[in-house]
Amino acid sequence: MALLSAQQKMGAAALILAISTVLSRLMGLIRDKVISWQFGAGGEADMYFAAFVVPDMINHLLVGGFMSITIIPLLARRFQEDTEDAWSFFSCVFCWMLTASLLLTGTGMLFAEKLAAVVAPGFSGQQQLRLAFFMRIILPAQVFFLCGACMTALLYLRRQFRVPALSPLIYNGGIILFGVLTPLVIALWRGGESYEAALARTGMMGYCVGVTIGAAVGAFLLPVLVAREGGLHLHVRFRHPLMGKFILIALPLMLGQTVIMLDEQFMRVFGSMVGDGAVSLLNYARRIAQVPVGLVGQAAAVASYPFLVELLTRGDKEAFDKTLRTAFTNGLSLLIPCSVWMAAAAWPILGFLFQGGRFGPEETLACTPLVQIMLTATPFWLVYMVLVRAYYAASDSLTPAVTGTAMTLLFLPIYFFWAVPLGSWAIAALSGISVVLYVLWLMKIWAHRHGSDSWRGLSKLAFRLILCAIPGGAAAWLAGNMCMRGLSLQPFVTATTALCMSGFCFAALFLPLCHFFAPNALDFLWKHFGRKRSPAEK
User: What are phi and psi of 367, to 5 degrees?
Assistant: First the structure.
């Protein structure tokens, strides 16, 4: 436990969170691989993915994902001034979070059938009943997520990043474990029933149970144990002078459901209106498209936020702009070529990750264009992840919320009247368009208020990286498709071979072109691996 409660500096924190993000994304893909193998696209899988709409909305409403952003600046200041009062403030926030989460999840469980009809209007009556059953199992997880978010914020404040890094691994592990073992336990309990028969009987119930158990252990219990070791002082309290200021910071996040937060929910809601399998295919495609965003942007954004707050507190605007510029530059230098290659190799990637069991070649081909469409917007996702933390560090949660809400209201009728009649590809395309326009709007507002030094030279770098990546992407697409169509091997072996060939072709063309036309783009990587640049490169 002492190892988990140790403090880390920014570099170590970024490394820990980066490793955690990689492992978490990997486990998430393994989880979806198991689900796609057992259930394919459609039916139980559609209802399982749709069951997260209401729980995720509750999490967004109570700013569970942004708890560290809202509470850290206030809590840090109080600990510097009065430790006892800081614990009173923290207790007050925790008590209100516990109360609100219990009320909302309880209400959701009580009215699950009516909510199922709202979030999945395209499902049949029987499917909506099954969806309501899944929602009742999953909803209690939000109590653990939201209360655990308070504890995680406290650990971030103490610069203890190991437990927050472990939480998603335990969560995903719980889903996989209970999803796979529940049919086995049922089969044994029923006296030798086959696993396949037990799986058909239980469906995805075990995965839903795993969601709640994984959240209880990973998101709540472990952070509480480490926080207690560091001296957690928690007591019942519902009033504190700082609660008004906390609510003012959190309220825009509570009410401003932006297109970023609702992106996945829109795919589930409007996907249910397209037809059987659309929700699952959009979910699988989004999982793959979000991998480079999570790997490149999430760890750096989360780890850097406490330090961005510190820079603004000191009034060091120049260092603040430099930090943001470095995050943008380094992130896009990795994300753009990665996204181009993944779009070119989408077919073998899907074949490698998901094809098998009930997820056949037809589902792979249907999902491929969805992945390619979603990947086009990934650079803007990264810019959002970094830029929105700059807004929050500047104590401005209102601007992202108001602009995001306006963008959401603008795109809602377009989803309904344009995207749904055209099908899944239009939903994926509209998702990307809304994200791009929202991020450009946020960038314009930031430049008007604070200047554009944070992304000076960024567009030129992005343009060069895209030009360098296009020839490699074309070669990767050609090599991957030739392997997928021409090799007569076992499907997994064929996809693996195609993936390796496409990756080799992309790297063989991109790296030399990048060396000559964007020589500074990957400097941070060479520096990290200890390679000294030559004077010519400088």
Answer: -85, -25
Residue-wise over 373-385: b if at least 16 C-beta within 10 A, else e?
bbbbbbbbbbbbb
77-115, pLDDT tens digit by residue?
888 888 888 899 989 999 999 999 999 999 999 999 999
- How many residues does this entry show for the chain? 538
Phi, psi of 276 (to 5 degrees): -60, 130
Spatial CB neighbours of 394, under 8 Å, sequence gap ≥ 6:
312, 450
- How many of the other CB atoms lie within 10 Å of CB of 32? 23
Domain assignments of the chain as residue spans, ordered by start: 1-255, 276-538
Q: Which residues contact 494 (CB under 8 A, 6 or more apart)?
A: 351, 483, 484, 487
324: alpha, beta or left, given left = phi > 0 and alpha = psi -120 to 50? alpha
* Integer Cα distance of 76 and 83 in angstroms: 10
pLDDT band of residue 386 (cuts 50, 70, 90) is: confident
Q: Is 201 a residue whose pLDDT tops 80?
A: yes
Residue 159 phi/psi, 5° resolution?
60, 40
Residue 237 backbone dihedrals phi, psi, to 5 degrees: -160, 130
The DSSP secondary-structure symbol of 216 reads I
Q: Which of 208, 203, 262 is nearest to 42 (CA)?
A: 203
Question: With contact defined as beta carbons under 8 Å apart, do 451 and 395 qualify?
Answer: no
Mean pLDDT of the chain: 86
- Exposed / middle / buried, residue 222 (Cβ in 10 Å: 0-12, 13-18, 19+): buried
Q: What is the DSSP string of 231-289?
A: ----------TTHHHHHHHHHHHHH---HHHHHHHHHHHHHTTT-TTHHHHHHHHHHHH
φ, ψ at 356 (rounded to 5°): 140, 155
Instruction: Please choose, from the candidates 459, 323, 473, 450, the residue with its C-alpha nearest in 3D space to the C-alpha of residue 380.
Output: 459
Tokens of 317: 């605007």
Instruction: Pull the structure tokens for residue 186.
Output: 């049922």
Percentage of the chain modeled with pLDDT above 70: 88
- Which segments of 111-221 does DSSP mark as H helices, in order? 112-119, 125-138, 141-157, 162-189, 195-202, 205-214
Q: Which pair of structure tokens corresponds to residue 530?
A: 């200890």
